């Protein structure tokens, strides 16, 4: 069996008087036990609970009296009604009333004859505390309802049935009847009836037991116990119990059944038999207001429920986890407060988690731990050396029964130990950011770090990169033991020891230490770039630049924008230091000029000089790839073109000594010596497209006359008669004239053109020039006409305003100062407001309403 739900202890042992009788029925009310015998005696005992020598609870009985009813027939049924201090007694098919205290009959003659059985309504529809409702089964095909008071049994209603009733149950307005042929449920208020199922009462003892509101338990053929409700449906699966049952009762969540040899206990939660108690000669069994008594013909026994927590513990010890949880969930029906139940229940869930953990059911264990809000230290503690070294946590013995540590759980099998550790890591990750981790962050993070370090998990880096509360000294030893150097540096960084972190990381980058998870020198550069300890930064600048100037300079170029400026990080200081690293100093100057956009001549000049020196060195080296040289020259040309802050003459002096004509042209352009620049592009480079582009670039943002002047200079260079190869420039000159991008003063250009050029050669230029001239003339004419129309409209509106009459008399006053007008001059606004001249501060704004009038609208003086 699964569990010991009840213990059988003696309640009334056989005494001298009882030895002459046979017990037929019993009833209990409070401390009063009433026994009905086969000799028509009613015996009254008082029961007192006592502690037995074995520490368990039992009863001590005392006989208070007895009563002989005088008919020499067995008493078949007793029922005490404490509210009335009466006992209902069924003997010789007659139902009578006795006084509970002295067992004397009620002399009013209250009795019902022809009764085969009766029952009380435990869920009456009425609320009179001084009466009870009963239902009686008669020998005839009828059941009757009565209201019982202290001295009367008042007939209420007859309910006809198809066959005589053998057993009945009553709940509210529902009567469950076991007739000689079938079971049925009758609603005595509506008259409705529901046929349940047939049976043979010769083979199956008809038993009816109310187990809840509108729900009954019935004995059925084939040793089944069927549940039925008001609709006739079965709300629960049936029970499989023993043959030849003589009595059944219900004590949540158990159904207790009795036959000639055993008392069996079934749970209505899973319909399984939980306990069997040998018990021969049983005559009657029932639950009396929570107290269970069972009787043989000679004595009375009590069935003491084993406390639900003890039952749960027994189930857990037998690995019946689901049954234990289900039983515990129903424990709230045992009268516990919500707080007490919750406290007990979460402890049971925690125990269930460890039971499943021991059985390697890891998913179930995780669910129970989460639902039970387990103190995670209880779980960590079974893993050797995972709790912080400084922890003084003590394990709870009730949670760790038969569990020494995880090695014992896994039978020292390496693979299973690994599974258990993976389970712990996943569980800690789940709860790390939940309320279960409050106050336990150190234990959780320390355990995670040790697990990650042992397995060299990538999560180790993520843990240390976040807010990690692990115990510092303990984790340092762990990381050193497992040689997790990169993570060790992260731990030092998290705790503010940046120098130790850098020592470790630089040794890894230099190859002195090994760690496959180390991301490389870029990580160190980024760390130094964001480090506020500038003294420590400078300590590692040389190390970084010696390994990569391009990466090392990022220490200075990728610093936080909101970082306070210090002397050690001033640009001049950095530039002076970087002179030993030419590529780094260029990158830093580019950062200052193009990113920070510092407008200092020395930075711009310095960068231009370094660009120029780089190009010159590359030109001297014959092995320099042409692509690299062109890229360097492009950077130089861009710098010379976009910046206006460098020392032009200094750069020009160096460039003039070379064949770098493009750069030289840019510099001449900066000096406004455009003809020199253009001659270099045309005569030296013969790059006519570059010459036109020069005019466009240098005239950008200037007025049209400046643009025309540049293109006129270019055309003049093309047409220069002193140039010995001037014939070669006729074609580019004509192309320039016909270009849509070029802009000219046509009169001046015509004066420049050679007299021997034909009109056909200039046809396109002249056609476009004539068209542009006409367009400009027409546009000016339209603009002039529009202005004239606008002017006329203004005059018209002014005349209309001035034609309106203004009545001025002695009662008229100024709208601003409210004084009368003493002079003939005044101001009238377009909205009709009239003021003194000196009160009109602004003729475009009404001084009263603040309304703004268009400056084109007349609002002048009238007189």
Output the keywords.
single chain; about 850 residues; WD40_repeat_dom_sf; transport; elongated; 28 helices; disordered C terminus; alpha+beta; Herpes Virus-1; four-stranded antiparallel β-sheet
Description:
The chain has 863 residues and is an alpha+beta fold. The protein contains 28 helices and 31 strands. The strands form 8 sheets. A 4-stranded antiparallel beta sheet has the order 1-28-27-26, with no helix packed on it. Strands 2-3-4-5 form a 4-stranded antiparallel beta sheet, with no helix packed on it. Strands 6-7-8-9 form a 4-stranded antiparallel beta sheet, with no helix packed on it. The N and C termini lie far apart (121 Å). One of its GO terms (biological process) is autophagy. Residues 310-365 form the CTLH domain. It comes from Lingula anatina.
**Helix content, binned percent:** 25-40%
Structural shape: elongated
Query: pLDDT under 50 segments (min length 5)?
Result: 857-863
SS content category: alpha+beta
CATH top level assignment of the domain at 6-306: Mainly Beta
| Rg from Cα | 55 Å
In terms of quaternary structure, the protein is: single chain
Strand % is 15-25%
According to CATH, the homologous superfamily of the domain at 6-306 is YVTN repeat-like/Quinoprotein amine dehydrogenase
Q: If strands are numbered along the chain, what order do they take across the biggest sheet? A: 1-28-27-26
For the terminal residues, how far apart are their CA atoms?
121 Å
Number of continuous helical runs: 28
The total count of strands amounts to 31
Task: Give the CATH architecture of the domain at 6-306.
Answer: 7 Propeller
- State mean pLDDT (0 to 100 scale): 89
CATH topology of the domain at 6-306: Methylamine Dehydrogenase, Chain H
């Amino acid at each position: 069996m699964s569990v010991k739900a009840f213990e059988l202890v003696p309640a009334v042992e056989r005494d001298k008087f009882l030895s002459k009788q046979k017990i037929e029925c019993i009833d209990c009310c409070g401390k009063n036990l009433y026994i009905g015998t086969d000799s028509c005696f009613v015996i009254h005992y008082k029961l007192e609970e006592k502690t037995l020598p074995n520490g368990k609870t039992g009863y001590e009985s005392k006989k208070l009296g007895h009563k002989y009813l005088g008919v020499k027939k067995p008493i078949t049924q007793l029922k005490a009604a404490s509210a009335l201090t009466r006992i209902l007694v069924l003997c010789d098919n007659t139902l009578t009333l006795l006084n509970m205290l002295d067992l004397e009959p009620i002399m009013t003659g209250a009795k019902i004859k022809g009764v085969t059985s009766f029952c009380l309504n435990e869920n009456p529809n009425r609320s009179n505390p001084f009466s009870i409702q009963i239902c009686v089964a008669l020998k005839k095909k009828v059941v009757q309802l009565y209201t019982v008071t202290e001295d009367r049994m008042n007939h209420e209603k007859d309910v006809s049935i198809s066959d005589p009733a053998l057993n009945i149950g009553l709940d509210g307005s529902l009567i469950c009847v076991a007739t000689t042929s079938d079971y049925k449920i009758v609603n005595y208020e509506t008259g409705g009836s529901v046929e349940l199922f047939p049976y043979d009462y010769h083979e199956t003892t008809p038993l009816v037991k109310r187990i809840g509101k509108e729900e009954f338990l019935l004995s059925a053929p084939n040793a089944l116990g069927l549940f039925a409700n008001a609709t006739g449906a079965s709300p629960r699966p049936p029970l499989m119990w023993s043959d030849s049952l003589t009595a059944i009762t219900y004590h949540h969540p158990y159904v207790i059944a009795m036959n000639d040899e055993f008392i069996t206990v079934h749970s209505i939660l899973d319909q399984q038999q939980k306990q069997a108690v040998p018990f021969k000669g049983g005559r009657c069994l029932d639950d009396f207001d929570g107290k269970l008594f069972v009787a043989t013909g000679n004595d009375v026994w009590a069935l003491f429920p084993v406390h639900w927590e003890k039952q749960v513990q027994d189930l857990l010890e037998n690995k019946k986890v689901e049954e234990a949880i289900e039983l515990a969930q129903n424990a709230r029906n045992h009268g516990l407060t919500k707080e007490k139940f919750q406290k007990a229940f979460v402890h049971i869930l925690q125990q269930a988690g460890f039971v499943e953990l021991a059985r390697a059911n890891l998913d179930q264990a995780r669910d129970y731990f989460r639902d039970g809000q387990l103190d995670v230290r209880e779980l960590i503690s079974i893993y050797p050396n995972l709790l912080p070294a400084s922890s003084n946590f003590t394990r709870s013995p009730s949670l760790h029964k038969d569990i020494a540590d995880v090695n014992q759980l896994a039978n020292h099998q390496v693979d299973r130990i690994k599974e258990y550790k993976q389970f712990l890591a996943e569980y800690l990750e789940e709860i790390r950011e939940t309320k279960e981790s409050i106050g336990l962050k150190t234990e959780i993070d320390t355990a995670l770090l040790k697990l990650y370090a042992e397995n060299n998990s990538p999560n180790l880096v993520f843990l240390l990169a976040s807010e990690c509360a692990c115990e510092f000294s303990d984790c340092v030893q762990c990381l050193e033991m497992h040689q997790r150097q990169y993570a060790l540096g992260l731990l030092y960084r998290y705790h503010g020891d940046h120098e130790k972190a850098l020592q470790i990381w630089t040794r890894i980058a230099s190859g002195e230490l090994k760690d496959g998870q180390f991301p490389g020198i870029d990580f160190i550069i980024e760390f130094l770039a964001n480090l506020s300890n500038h003294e420590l930064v400078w300590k590692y600048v040389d190390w970084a630049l010696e390994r990569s100037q391009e990466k090392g300079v990022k220490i200075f170029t990728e610093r936080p924008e909101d970082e306070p400026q210090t002397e050690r990080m001033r640009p001049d200081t950095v530039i002076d230091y970087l002179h030993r690293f030419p590529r780094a100093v260029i990158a830093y100057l580019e950062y200052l000029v193009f990113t920070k956009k510092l407008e200092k001549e020395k930075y711009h000049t310095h960068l231009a000089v370094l660009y120029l020196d780089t190009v010159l060195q590359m030109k001297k080296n014959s092995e320099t790839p042409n692509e690299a040289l062109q890229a360097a020259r492009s950077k130089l040309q861009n710098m010379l073109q976009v910046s206006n802050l460098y020392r032009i003459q200094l750069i020009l002096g160096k460039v003039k000594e070379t064949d770098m004509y493009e750069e030289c042209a840019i510099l001449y352009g900066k000096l406004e010596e455009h003809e020199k620049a253009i001659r270099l592009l045309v005569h030296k480079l013969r790059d006519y497209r570059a010459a036109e582009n020069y005019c466009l670039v240098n005239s950008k943002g200037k007025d049209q006359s400046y643009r025309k002047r540049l293109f006129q200079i270019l055309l003049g260079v093309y047409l220069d008669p002193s140039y010995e190869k001037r014939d070669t420039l006729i074609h580019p000159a004509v192309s320039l004239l016909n270009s849509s991008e070029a802009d000219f003063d046509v009169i001046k250009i015509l004066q420049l053109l050679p007299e021997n050029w034909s009109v056909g050669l200039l046809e396109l230029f002249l056609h476009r020039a004539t068209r542009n001239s006409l367009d400009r003339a027409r546009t000016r004419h339209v603009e002039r006409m529009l202005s004239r129309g606008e002017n006329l409209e203004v005059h018209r509106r002014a005349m209309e305003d001035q034609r309106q009459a203004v009545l001025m008399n002695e009662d008229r006053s100024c709208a601003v100062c409210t004084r009368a007008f003493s002079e003939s001059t005044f101001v009238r606004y377009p909205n009709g407001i009239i003021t003194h001249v000196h009160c009109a501060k602004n003729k475009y704004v009404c001084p009263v309403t603040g309304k703004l009038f268009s400056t084109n609208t007349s609002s002048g003086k009238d007189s």
